[in-house]
Amino acid sequence: MSQVQQLYRLQQIDTEISAKKQRLKDVIQLQRETTELQQARQRAANAALALRNNDAQLEDLNLEVGGVIDKARRSEQHLYSGKVTNPKELSDLEHELQALGRRRAALEDDILEAMILVEDAQSENRDALTSLQSIEASWEQSQANLKVEQNDLALTLHGLLGRRQQTAVTVPEKLLVDYDALRTRKNGLAVVALEEHRCMGCHVRLPENKVAQAERGDLVTCSGCGRILAPHIS
Question: What's this model's pTM, rounded to 2 decimal places?
Fold first, then answer.
């Protein structure tokens, strides 16, 4: 196998290494919580807070109306106990009972509204939890798959790096340095196939003399993109 063919083999390995490294980077990035999951968590938290607040408001209203009822009962007992004979005091008690009645009616209206809010909050809380559980289950499954892929990629990269090392030692040091420098300049692609007189890097058609040199195993670069040309690679 010629030196150019060895370089092409090395290029194939390096290309695969770059692809696997990029995929590994993507896989690690994908293991972060998604925006969808974060939004579902926030919705569930907001729903739970709203439910607690509405429950607390309803409880406060029930306590207040209970206090009003107790106070009205005591005032009514006092009014009809026969112990109050002063007309003004009787009038004050009657006015107080009327005021307590109005307050009770207002509180009972507020309680009905609060009960509706609690029911709505309970419904939203259930929906938010159901949605969160579904999204979490899907995300956790994807994470399990990604973990498996991450491990597979790590093993594959380990093998590829070993193959690269074995292939690189077959290439003269000076040529290897030139290859690495060219690969840096050419976005990772230093050696490309020559097929039907065309460079597979930039698709420029090469003159016959360059094609003949390349087919003899000489180190020939493309006149279009400057990459090394490797013909008849199996």
Answer: 0.70
**How do residues 68-89 score in pLDDT, each as one tens digit?**
999 999 988 888 888 878 888 8
Q: Residue 120 in 3-state DSSP?
A: helix
**Element at 188 (helix H, strand E):** none
Phi, psi at residue 225, to the nearest 5°?
Answer: -115, -10
Strand partners, 228: 191, 221
CA atoms within 13 A on the CB side of 14: 22
Distance CA 2, CA 171 (A): 10
209-212: long-range contacts (C-beta < 8 A, 24 or more apart)?
none
Residue carrying structure tokens 């939004």: 39
Kindly report, residue by residue over 125-171, the tens digit of the pLDDT. Answer: 999 999 999 999 999 999 999 999 999 999 999 999 999 999 999 99
Sheet arrangement for strand 191-195: 198-199, 191-195, 228-231
Secondary structure element (H or E) that encloses residue 230, with its range: strand 228-231
pLDDT score for 233: 52
